[in-house]
## 1
Amino acid sequence: MIKFKKTAILCVSALMFSGAIAAGDFDKEIDGRQSYMGVLGYNMGILGAMAGEKMPYDADLASAAARNLALAAAMNNGSMWPQGSDMDSTEGTWAKADLWQNFPIVMDQLGNLKTYSEALATNAGNGLSSLQAGMKGVGDSCKECHKRFRAKKN
């Protein structure tokens, strides 16, 4: 009987512990998506500085940054966005809980980012005016998602 009680206690403890991990331990996912956003932001920074004429236009660098952006936009990153990894449930993120209730909108914006960044990758090296023209769609898709689903950083 004592052996049964010990086994039952161990099983219940294991179930409780595994539930706690599944419910709130999203450090790797949050780190991954913040790194992903950093890659997007880094390349957008280069492209935006050139498009805004805050740095000299460089066709090779513009092409490389636009290709990086397109590759990142095409990446399957769904595992970085588990339910419950929002700012109301987990520390260290600015993703609003509303994001998961509106995932079709998020997926549409990601599709737009992919489409616009692929076009930008094709044209970014063709001169400053081509780069500037291609930045609007990319920027708008980023802004739309961030405006709705990301809180301001403190």
Note: The chain has a mean pLDDT of 87.
## 2
Amino acid sequence: MARDRGKQCRLCRREGQKLYLKGEKCFKPSCPIEKRGVNPPGQHGPNSRRKPIGYGEQLREKQRVKRIYNLLETQFRNYFEKAAQQKGITGENLLSLLERRLDNVVFRLGFAMSRRQARQFVRHGHVTVNGRKVDIPSFQVRIGDEVSVRSRSIENPHIQGAFQTSGGRGRPSWLEITNPGNLVGRVIAQPRREDIDQNINEQLIVELYSK
């Protein structure tokens, strides 16, 4: 499986915001965003790039959302094409598909410190959906699905640490924790546009792919 092995903190600085790509390290004072601010990486800092306009602005927004959800270009394009085929607003359909990925749900429930870590937990078989192990990060959850940590993984210190830290991050209204002791959550609704906690302009992505 293809992976981005580049330096994650440079991606956050390039996008001008914390993307929480490195999990626990993102909450420490040593985080480069905390130390150096949101200036893009590079020798010249804030003077190294002009503010993008037109195509550049659309491309920058697509790259940012792609990195937030930890996807490669082909994966992201496939999600857009699927969203375009659905009824409703394409941009909101796209965000709904991305939010309903299993690795994102594990992160949003607070079982992982980052989407990257959540993907690893899913891949390693630590997560179940409706009582059955699912090791596919792109698995799409539906209303009523119960997402939980496997019983033998509940005491995993990384999972426990993430769950104890996640309180300050907030949890979207379309998810709920039904059993905190056993790390069990449930999908109670479809994700709505206002549930997306990142400042995303999905219309720019639609315009980019519609050219």
Note: Residues 8-98+198-209 form a domain with the Ribosomal Protein S4 Delta 41; Chain A, domain 1 fold (CATH 1.10.1050.10).
## 3
Amino acid sequence: MSRSPISATLAQKEREAVLQAITTIKQKLPFLVDLSADERKALPKMGDKSRAFVSKALEVATQNPEFLPRSFDLDEMRKDVELFEALYPLLLSLTQLQELVDDTSLAVGSEAFASALQVYNYAKASGQGAGLDAVVEAMGQRFVRKSKKVKSKEAAL
């Protein structure tokens, strides 16, 4: 994996503009729902094969409404299909944007962490007597691991 380091900034004004754009998107989609993990599990999922199935079912129902029970709301089905199809390109675009933001955040976080490790190692190597002992010790807490014996004793209690 060969990539160049990220050298960028995000000004407060730009960040606020992006956050405002996200707020605007949410306002333009007031029907969005927030499902729990259990609700998400329980719902049937509509992928590419299911999209074709649903499209055919809507066509069949539209052309042959006489076999449907009176309680079946064909107009509501049509609205659901139309809304799904309208949301689909948004979902693809937002998913791509989220992946880019995730990857960039991961990469720049990794760069920052690698630099911090260098600082820590340099401070450890040259910090004796330079007044850095307390800082180096505090930074070193990041790498302290609990012994397995302590965990075993806690589990036994």
Note: The chain has a mean pLDDT of 90.
